Amino acid sequence: MSVATRIRRNEYFKSAIVIVIIIAVVLAFFFGLAAALGTAVPVRVVESGSMCVPYDGACDGWSHPFAHTLHVGDIIVIQKINPADLNANYPNSDIIVYENPTDPTATPIVHRIVAKYEVNGTWYFQTKGDGNGKQWPAIPSPQQYDSNTIYPGNGQGVSQNYVIGRVVLRIPYFGWITLFLRNNPWGLPVVITLILLIVVLEFAIPILRGKKGKPEEETKSPEVENFSL
Question: Please, what are the domains in the chain?
Fold first, then answer.
């Protein structure tokens, strides 16, 4: 049997190939989704409770996971869209994701469009968190638009230049994994430890057992046939 054939039949080699294929599929899915939706980061996790409408005080995504508003820990899928096509028909308007102009490195803001208008060829959007002030779906007054606070002094709201895209899909619960790793200093070490433990159980222990068994096989005396003369 050739060396290449032995390698291909090796269980550890097969496991390594499976891991590589899984990683490749995940990366291909992410970049494919980014290309299809037109955004560099098509998937994000909701970190703030500004879009939550408290139901009996619960706003964690567990009590009403499929409500029309967003909850902390939701995974959202974002699609880039022509600003003129964004729906501003509140309370059934689009939820958009946009950069914070005072700190572009900060986490993008996720709010619902309350109104939109065009000025000199540029679209502007007044926005509001569903759970802020007068809660969705009640119609807020212009003084209650969050964009007046986020963009103080410009009187126009969110420029289309800051809009990353609109939310087209909400997946409840699963974003808590990311928030757990980000908010707990010991979260990442725990995950790394679990990965190392899996590697040890899958690869290291079987290899060590195989090495321990070899000397016994090598020292075993060969059988001698008796021949009568």
Answer: 38-173 (2.10.109.10)
